[in-house]
Amino acid sequence: MAFKPANNIQDLQYFGEFGGVNPSISDSSTYTFLSAKTMFDTFEGNADGCYLYSRHSSPSNLYLGEALAAMEGTETATVTASGMGAITPVLLQLCGAGEHVVSSRTIYGGTYAFLKNFAPRLGIDTTFVDITKLDVVEAAITPQTKVLYCESVSNPLLEVADIKSLADLAKKHNLKLVVDNTFSPLSISPIKLGADVVVHSLTKFINGSSDTVGGVVCGSQELIDDLRNVNSGAAMLLGSTMDSLRSASVLKNLRTLHIRMMQHSNNATYLAERFEKDGLKTVYPGLASHPSHELFKSMMNEKYGFGGMMTLDVGSLDKANALMELMQERNLGYLAVSLGFYKTLFSAPGSSTSSEIPEDEQKEMGLSDGLIRFSIGLDADIERTYDMMKSCMKELNII
Ligand SMILES: *Cc1c(COP(=O)(O)O)cnc(C)c1O
Question: What cofactors are annotated for this protein (predicted)?
């Protein structure tokens, strides 16, 4: 039977302590115990259902974590203060000094910077590969490799990872496949395709209101317990804990994610099809011209579409900057990094979100100067948006 991630979220039933339709917010950093013995057991990790201290867990964080675990189809999950606060503990939990990561080279700039510049200080080395070439991926695996890391749809080039085949490789070599699914929540369910761990930046589509950063690790009970272990857990000891007030607000936003993803996808599909017809170099996984269009189709939960992310290459950085400024002036969106907002957001990744990646490497991976990354908003009238964007492009001699 098809996996229905939105149903899994909807089928959860949470009540507040006075019968409220939303769960009560746990506004406490610490919790009392009726007996000293139970406190001891909780420290040892042996008192299920008891709360100890909110850096470890809190009722509000558990509600949000369980909803996200239901969405991804994992045993459980732990929420974190940011996406990077989810990604770095997972990598550090799964890899130690002398061990090795094989990672896609087209990943979020912060993740790339962590693996390239920071993790080597701890003795963890990474080989960056073109994740779409499975033979290259396999050739990079060494006896020290512990983790295979990728994004289901990569930032900013929208390369699509063949999660099933990567999962087979991971199994064959006894690695954990960790997938960042930030760009394609609901659309792609990596666990169902064989991934071991899914991470998200909740900051983007899942929260959807650009009012906070947040993250989550979805995985097995064993991994999440390890991450939260009082003595050796990277999430517990590095302390990237989400605040309870915030997890309550993210949970409320999560309830409309399915409607928002459909609208983001519909709007992005409309614009991508039009701009491609207008002769612009357009990258969108929903276009037949996208090299991984068929692969995305074979993996997706169809209803939610190909997502809200699209790139256009307008030829040069100067043109890209002029277009973005003009579109902002006409209130078609904001010149801002991040994604998943109700409003369209655009930025030139080469000089912003991917600037951690050296220029020659940017060139090699096809990240050109004139590239604009769009996170298409929830516009009610996308035909009007298209007409207005097109007239901006005409004024700047882009089309
Ligand atoms: C934004 C982003 C992150 C980092 O998340 P933060 O919430 O900013 O820490 C990681 N991966 C991807 C794909 C992202 O877009």
Answer: pyridoxal 5'-phosphate
